[in-house]
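Problem 12. The chain below contains 441 residues. Write out its predicted structure in token notation.
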Amino acid sequence: MKRLISLLLFLLAGCGAARTGTPATLPAATSSYAVTVAASPLPAAPVLPPTFTPPVRATLVTATPLPTPTRPAPTSTPVNFADTAVELRYRIPAIALDRRLQGTMGSQIIFADETVGRLLQRSNQGMILLELQQVLPALALQSVPEGCDTCVWLAYNLPVSGVSGEGWLQEPVLLASVENLLAVVLGPHFPPGTVIGLRRSASPYAPAQTIALTASGETWLWLATEGQIDAPQTGTETAVAPTPLLTTLQALELDSLANNYTTTCPGVPQETLYLNQGEQTITIAIACPEFTLPAPLLSLYLPLDAALKAKLAASVSDAPVRPPAAFPLAALLEYRRADGTRLTLYEDGQLVAMMRETAVFTTTLSASEIISLTAPLLESGLLKPGLASFLTPPESEPYSLLLLRGPQAVLDARWTGTKTAVAPLDELLEQLLPPAATREP
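Solution.
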């Protein structure tokens, strides 16, 4: 038990909010993280700690009640592997979260989502069951305050040892671990009526977190480490403006969106974005959104991201800060010229010209000007999907780099010398930066 708790505490010690610099203080490329494209998935984390775990393949079981827990009985064999070893139930009534698991002596676990009536079965789960049997007996659970439907309620039963308990779960490490274990298998949970939902798994910089917006305009925000989640926000109190966000949702063409916008970046969480337009829904897997999200999703994703960051900033302190991405999340375009100058166009139309990593001049482009600038680049054939610029080592001589958030993906290009396609970007840089003769060497 001490080994598990120590490991969990170590993994959660870095929980904190990621921060993105404003355009006037863009970080140097050398101090940011870049993307690493890889064919293989990220390595799986330990079973219980709230760290990134890739999606699993599980066997769907008929939606029938879990078997009644049984005490071990004398048999002709040393162990009856069908006997129940662990039963655990995890609930937050306010958001209709009701999940449980039941594991056997044969290292098999059935995971159940009572809200949607879904059961999944997994084998070879001995390590999970062993750790639960070590941790749960030492857990101190208080009675849930009367009427507290936003409190986390946990109940467990260990038939082998005859130990059981139930009550208000408030221990942050176990809160995060149980939420992670169930979410990895059963998927994220969003309250009934959710039309926009985003869950981020834990990372070295933050615990798992969820935001959900319902059709009625309620906004739910909570962290996996909270023993009592906040009541829903409504009206002017909401972390996001519900009406504009719902309008943005209805304007999206869900059929044009992919189910997966992922690549491999160091220390990033896995995310799940849920969108509902009446009869049509889509669930999208996201990893490293700075390098993967297409332009149509940006206006919807950015308010969710800002709300989660505000929640983390208010709830978590004294944590390491995640390094800024080499391509800002809010950026539509970034041009890094071989001479060290840099041009960044943001989703809100702000254009920033930089020299030696210091903001020199900013202006704002209209929607039509943004289209006039980016459309020819998309049609030029210079840019390709797949982030190929990050696959090979840089050339020995200075090179230029261009990233553009297109309608389906982030596109990029890297080259030495000059390219006709970027002449309009060069012209903008020369207009915005001081005259070449007055620039410092």
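Discussion. The CA atoms of residues 332 and 405 lie 5 Å apart. Students who got a different answer should revisit the alignment rule from Section 12.3.
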